[in-house]
Amino acid sequence: MALSTRHLLGIKYITAEDMHSIFETADNFKEVINRPIKKVPSLRDITIANLFFENSTRTRISFELAEKRLSADVVNFSASSSSVKKGETLLDTVNNILAMKVDMVVMRHPHPGAPVYLSKHIPAQIINAGDGTHEHPTQALLDCFSLRENFGSFKGLKVAIVGDITHSRVALSNIFALKKLGAEVTVCGPPTLIPKHIESLGAKVNYNLYETLKWCDAVNMLRIQLERQDIKYFPSLRDYSMQYQLNMEMLDRLNKKLIIMHPGPINRGVEITSEVADSDQSVILEQVQNGVATRMAVLYLLAGVKGKN
Amino acid sequence: MKADKLDLFPKGKLQITLLRLCHQLMEKYDDFSPVVLLGIQTSGVHLARRIQAMMKELVGTDLLTGELDATFFRDDFRMRTEPLEPNRTHIDFLIEDKHVILLDDVLYTGRTIRATLDAMLAYGRPKSVELFVLVDRKHRRELPIQPSYVGIQVDTIKTQRVLVDLKEAGGKDQVLLVSQE
């Protein structure tokens, strides 16, 4: 029942049993957040700092709601309005915040590995809310939780991840999670946006969207992360859309039940059309609701143990 | 290490006791429409289902019955080496203005009941709340909580344990007082 780790740094560092514990706990929290009174007092003696060194809307609000519904005290920090701008190092910033007696840190950072580095130098528990192009573990957990709601189990489940795989921490965390849970994964996108040797993680590669969708039970559509692309990886967004956009025409051609996920933010008309994003097969908003329940489960399981703080 | 076991309801007395408690409910309430049963996870839920079935037989009313889990409201969270494992809460009615009967298998320190009273508030303000327990380990209370309907009262010491093994949970429908020496 207790997780095998005291931080959540990435899916790479946790086990399938950990994930199942999180899902089972999240089932109960999903019931809690649908009650008229959505709050429980479990974390009332815990203080959590949300340190966002990179922009975020959904993840940050989702974490903050999860923390507040567990009755934790919450402090927020964003890099744009802080001493980081004045030249302070990451470790100094965090140590100053911890000196004010903070028990847990939820952190997003543009550099891969920043949470791992911090976990070696500070006593607080750390939850990674996205580190550069590395991992975004809670997103993978909520995606898998949504798949579990739709399919019941992961054995032999076929999941496709489509889009900018190279720059996506969501893709990497999802590949780790789905493989550990026993699902099959295919990544799809332009060859320039698929990292070399991705097969070594157990994911298959297909450059054709139609074939990939024909194969899978569920698809996770990713956004093109232009802000992380230093060079041109494809001629134009219009060209990308012509080959890799999920639209009604494609769905009609497939003529089968397909669960459509998207971690957000959506670029309507680029990787997915509005019609598809708002269709019955899309579980995008369900994913957002599951995000709060899953994050509550992670916080509850990490915090709920004696002597770990 | 020797374990000494005492059967608290020998020779099928469990069913007789439950029947007596049902009759006590009938003594108290003339109209059962505002009465609801809330079983406390996990054994209390089985007990609630059993009482619901018996009451249907006795008075012909199908009492509204829910399952309540108080794990998230406990005051010993973060004092153990394992996180407390939550169970399902399932109440598909409001308890506003209802007479609530909380059911649990064993009443000991009273802390579970305290947490349950907190958890219950999310579902409305009941008209009254009463406590129904199979076994009351008296003189061991750490909070001012008293049951209204009691199957059996026993004097116990801290090292003793009460094991409730209902048939709904795949057991033999017996309640044992276990002392370890």
Description:
The complex is a heterodimer of chains A (309) and B (181). With 309 residues, chain A is α/β, with parallel strands linked by helices. Chain A has 11 helices and 9 strands. Chain A has helices spanning 16-33, 58-69, 90-98, 114-119, 137-151, 169-181, 209-215, 237-244, 248-254, 274-277, 284-303; strands spanning 47-52, 73-78, 104-109, 125-131, 158-162, 184-188, 204-206, 218-221, 259-261. In chain A, the strands form 2 sheets. Chain A has a 5-stranded parallel sheet. In chain A, helix 5 (137-151) crosses helix 11 (284-303). Chain A is globular and about 55 Å long. The relative contact order of chain A is 0.16. The mean pLDDT of chain A is 93. Chain B has 181 residues and is α/β, with parallel strands linked by helices. Chain B has a 5-stranded parallel sheet with strand order 3-2-4-5-6. A 3-stranded antiparallel sheet of chain B has the order 1-8-7, with no helix packed on it. In chain B, helix 3 links the parallel strand 4 (99-107) and strand 5. Chain B starts with a strand and ends with a strand. Chain A binds chain B through residues 1-2, 25, 27-28, 31-32, 35-37, 40-42, 45, 70, 300-301, 303-307, 309, and chain B through 69, 71-73, 77-90, 118-119, 121-124.
